Amino acid sequence: MTQKIFTLTAGRTGTAWLASFLGLNQAGTVIHEPLGIGDFGTRMPEIRTLREFNAFGNTATVQAFWRRKLQEIAPLDFYAETNHTLGKCGLIENLCLSGLRRESTVIVLRRDLARQCASYVQRGDFRNITIAWQWYLHPSYPLKSVNPEVLLQMGEVGLALWYCFEMAVRQEFYLRLYGSRIRMIEVQLEEAVRPDGARALWEQLGGAGNPVCPPPRNENPEPPNQDLVSELRDLVARLSFDPSAIADDAIAQGLTFESPVRAAMAPARMA
Asked: Which SUPFAM superfamilies does the UniProt record give (predicted)?
């Protein structure tokens, strides 16, 4: 298997499990998140990269980060990085500018929205804006698809839910606009962690035989709060969230991250 693999996903969606799965079944370089001190700004996007992309689009600073990163990866026969921050700061746009797009696969990884959101709330991930800047997204960014007005009235839960919604829409956005230029496969975490789902994923990646399927991983030290999960599931249902429709609307309105000038003019869409 000769290819480069990345993920387009939110945080807390199973990226650590996916890195374990790939590392157990394929020889080569497999990384979850490069977190060495020297990695930030070189192999790992730093706060400026993430904030600049989501405020102004694919600027010269963002493109310079990606040129360095992709040049380092290019000579490797097999490289997989399940780092969820990449899809929020120009992964797709810059793969399209690189010759690596022809040998790349992007895994569009999804998780049950209620469980995903509950994980952020239990960990307190949206209590400090610097965490949102480095790891997630923040509704103050000019470039967004989901209007946060209603959700922000719900406090910390609304912030976390807005992020879930925004990333779900971005997945649909990128599938529509770039799916014919970069190979993308859609994966649901709850299915992938089962043996039959892991086998299906492995086949989609070009693997042969039955892969080793590691157990599900939960890096949150607290067990899931089932009452919170149920409340969030009811809330998502009441909001009638439709990421496909919002993505279509955003595209029709001209949302783009490719050009800083055009991107800055793109409006937010209502959830």
From this structure: P-loop containing nucleoside triphosphate hydrolases
What is the residue type of 215?
A: P
Question: What distance lies between CA 179 and its chain's CA centroid?
Answer: 15
Question: Alpha-carbon Rg of the chain, whole angstroms?
Answer: 18
Distance of CA 130 to the CA centre of its chain: 18
Residue 219 has pLDDT above 70, yes or no: no
Task: Return the HEC string of 4-36.
Answer: EEEEECCCCCCHHHHHHHHHHHCCCEEECCCCC
| Contact present, 161 and 173 (Cβ < 8 Å) | no
- Would you put residue 254 in left (φ > 0), alpha (ψ -120 to 50) or beta? left
Q: Which two tokens stand for residue 11?
A: 């945080």
Residue 178, both tokens = 């770039």
| Rounded average pLDDT over 86-110 | 97
> How many structural domains is the chain composed of?
1
Q: Which domain holds residue 95?
A: 3-270
User: Does the predicted TM-score (pTM) go above 0.85?
Assistant: yes
Helix axes 156-178, 226-239, angle to 10 degrees: 60
For the chain, the straight-line distance linking the first and the last C-alpha, in angstroms and rounded, comes to: 40
Tell me, what CATH number does 60's domain have?
Answer: 3.40.50
- In contact, 227 and 49? CB cutoff 8 Å: no
